[in-house]
């Protein structure tokens, strides 16, 4: 299979893209901790593929900033710095309102149908206290909104930024700081309801073609979401003591 970026698994071909997605998802979920080695042989065994698509996947992930290559150690999960984390938030704060404004100008009826359906589901799940189901719905919502911008390049950037932000801020374990004196930490269920109400208002603005309103709503929503990320990251990312990942560490 030398030179082939596809692997055969169960009679079907597995692309390097699929392997890249699987490794990226495991990095974001924390199955692979920052600083830990990504050995081609172990990855190939874990995902049931050859080393060729694994090698290409690692190159792609390095270009995205999830993986770094160290001398004498090979590929390792990147260890984002405080400055990189702050930069991610600033970039998201600029690009997400732009994406919403573009969506108001370029969305299709198909986009609106999906967005409205997701808002309905999100509100139902939030009201029913099914908070564990909201994250994938939120990811789907924001990916659809990004696609509605009509710009594949912008959509790809927005999706990647959301993934990296979630990963960077989940990679800093430790106790969350206490809220300022006199402040009360918001109830998760109430915040979820508020968040999906914001999603609904944003979809209404996009449906009306009101780019200015969509931009303003996206800005406010993003600022609230990113302030919560900052509360979750009181200390610098810690260096993992794990050197090599194995299948037993998968979540």
Describe this structure in words.
By secondary structure, the protein is mostly helical. It has 9 helices and 4 strands. The strands form 2 sheets. Strands 1-2 form a two-stranded antiparallel ribbon. A two-stranded antiparallel sheet has the order 3-4. The longest helix is centred in the middle third of the chain and has 25 residues, at 82-106. It is elongated, with a radius of gyration of 20 Å. Residues 1-12 and 234-251 have low confidence and may be disordered.
Q: Please state the average pLDDT score.
A: 82
CA gyration radius, whole angstroms: 20 Å
Indicate the overall shape. elongated
Strand content: 5-15%
Low-confidence stretches: 1-12, 234-251
Q: What class would the helix/strand composition place it in?
A: mainly alpha
Strand arrangement, largest sheet?
A: 1-2
Helix segment tally:
9
Helical content, roughly?
55-70%
User: How widely separated are the two ends?
Assistant: 30 Å
Extended strand count: 4
H-E string: EEHHHEEHHHHHH
Largest sheet: 2 strands, antiparallel
Describe this structure in a few short sentences.
This protein is mainly alpha-helical.
């Amino acid at each position: 299979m030398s030179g082939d970026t596809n692997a055969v698994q169960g009679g079907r071909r597995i692309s390097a893209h699929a392997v890249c997605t699987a490794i990226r998802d495991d990095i974001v979920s924390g199955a692979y901790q920052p600083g830990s080695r990504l050995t081609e042989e172990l990855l190939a065994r874990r995902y049931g593929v050859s080393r060729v698509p694994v090698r290409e996947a690692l190159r792609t992930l390095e270009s995205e900033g999830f993986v770094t290559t160290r001398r004498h150690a090979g590929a390792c999960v990147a260890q984002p710095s405080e400055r990189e984390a702050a930069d991610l938030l600033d970039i998201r704060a600029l690009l997400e309102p732009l994406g919403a404004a573009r969506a108001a100008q370029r969305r299709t009826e198909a986009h609106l149908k999906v967005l409205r359906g997701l808002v309905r589901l999100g509100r139902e799940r939030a009201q029913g206290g099914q908070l564990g189901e909201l994250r994938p719905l939120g990811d789907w919502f924001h990916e659809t909104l990004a696609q509605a911008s009509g710009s594949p390049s912008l959509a790809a950037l927005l999706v990647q930024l959301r993934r990296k932000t979630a990963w960077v801020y989940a990679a800093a374990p430790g106790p969350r700081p206490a809220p300022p004196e006199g402040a009360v930490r918001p109830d998760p269920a109430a915040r979820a309801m508020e968040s999906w109400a914001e999603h609904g208002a944003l979809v209404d603005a996009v449906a009306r073609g009101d780019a200015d309103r969509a931009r303003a709503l996206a800005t406010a929503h993003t600022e609230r979401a990113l302030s919560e990320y900052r509360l979750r990251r009181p200390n610098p990312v810690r260096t993992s003591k794990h050197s090599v990942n194995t299948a037993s560490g998968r979540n």
